[in-house]
Amino acid sequence: MSIEHIWLAIGFLGQGLFFGRWVVQWIASERKSESQVPIAFWYMSLVGGLITLAYAIYRKDPVFIAGQSVGAVVYVRNLVLIARAGESAPQS
User: Fold this and answer.
1) How many domains does the chain have?
2) By residue range, what is the domain housing residue 70?
3) CA R_g for the chain
4) pLDDT tens digit string along 26-44?
5) Are the C-beta atoms of residues 48 and 60 closer than 8 Å to each other?
6) pLDDT per position as a tens digit, 36-82
């Protein structure tokens, strides 16, 4: 297996995780019968986005790099907000 094939596999893994987050969100919404964005969505977004970013860096694609870099900031920020909300929630 060549390095090129390994990077293609990494790229597809990132895209697969990134796509899978929508499946997770859809299933969660269907279960509640309303729009839901579960925490798994944000983790899958972050991991899939970072893997895809690594692939974009390997490819030296500035457009792809810029898009995935900004996305990672948004995903981390949402995870921080979720964690803060959990800390301030009353405990039973």
Assistant:
1) 1
2) 3-88
3) 16
4) 999 999 999 999 999 999 9
5) no
6) 999 999 999 999 999 999 999 999 999 999 989 999 999 999 999 99
